């Protein structure tokens, strides 16, 4: 107690069950501030976007799925957008097949937050980590 008074710090009991009890000389107000600061600093979740086309080749699709897997493993949400050009919009079922193939290639550590749906000249789907 004498040392803590000389230094102008607080004497904090760290382990009261230990014999003898363990105490620490520290600035308790600063310690509480640091703990509250750590609690408020939460990881922000970003939405990463991947753009694909209707007639995407299998190797290119595997590369996009690998990137999707990396985004989800980092804890980010992923938005997959497929754009249609010209007459491709007549066959949205081909686009839905590509989205089904993406879900087949992706491992099971994700949740579909927004299923694939047609919006104008593009289809979007949002995946999130579990």
Give a short synopsis of this structure:
By secondary structure, this protein is an alpha+beta fold. It has helices spanning 2-7, 28-40, 58-73, 92-105; strands spanning 10-15, 22-26, 47-53, 77-83, 110-119, 122-129.
> How many domains is the backbone divided into?
2
Report mean pLDDT, rounded to a whole number. Answer: 90
Strand order of the largest sheet: 3-4-6-5
What CATH calls the topology of the largest domain is: Translation Initiation Factor IF3
Topology as a string of helices (H) and strands (E): HEEHEHEHEE
Distance between the termini: 50 Å
Rg, nearest Å: 27 Å
Alpha-beta classification: alpha+beta
Q: Give the amount of beta strand, in percent.
A: 25-35%
Which CATH class of the largest domain applies here?
Alpha Beta
Shape assignment:
rod-shaped
Low-confidence stretches: none
Largest sheet: 4 strands, mixed
Number of helices: 4
CATH architectural group of the largest domain: 2-Layer Sandwich
How helical, in percent, are the residues?
Answer: 25-40%
Total beta strands: 6
The CATH homologous superfamily of the largest domain is named Translation initiation factor 3 (IF-3), C-terminal domain
Write the layout of secondary structure elements.
Layout: H1 2-7, E1 10-15, E2 22-26, H2 28-40, E3 47-53, H3 58-73, E4 77-83, H4 92-105, E5 110-119, E6 122-129
Structure, described:
With 130 residues, this protein is of the alpha+beta class. It folds into two domains: 2-40, Translation initiation factor 3 (IF-3), N-terminal domain (Ubiquitin-like (UB roll), Roll), CATH 3.10.20; 47-129, Translation initiation factor 3 (IF-3), C-terminal domain (Translation Initiation Factor IF3), CATH 3.30.110.10. The protein is built from four helices and six strands, in the order αββαβαβαββ. It has helices spanning 2-7, 28-40, 58-73, 92-105, and strands at residues 10-15, 22-26, 47-53, 77-83, 110-119, 122-129. The strands form two sheets. It has a four-stranded mixed beta sheet, covered by helices on one side. A hairpin with a 6-residue loop joins strand 1 (10-15) and strand 2.
């Amino acid at each position: 107690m004498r040392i803590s008074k000389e230094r102008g710090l607080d004497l904090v009991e760290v382990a009261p069950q230990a014999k003898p009890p363990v105490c620490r000389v520290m600035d308790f107000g600063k310690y509480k501030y640091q703990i509250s600061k750590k609690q408020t600093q939460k990881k922000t979740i970003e939405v990463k976007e991947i753009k694909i086309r209707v007639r995407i080749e299998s190797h290119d699709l595997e590369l996009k799925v690998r990137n999707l897997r990396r985004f989800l493993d980092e804890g980010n949400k992923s938005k997959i957008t497929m754009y249609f050009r010209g007459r491709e919009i007549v066959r949205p079922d081909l686009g839905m097949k590509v989205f089904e193939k993406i879900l087949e290639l992706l491992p099971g550590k994700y949740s579909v937050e927004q299923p694939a749906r047609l919006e104008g000249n593009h289809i979007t789907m949002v995946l999130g980590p579990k």
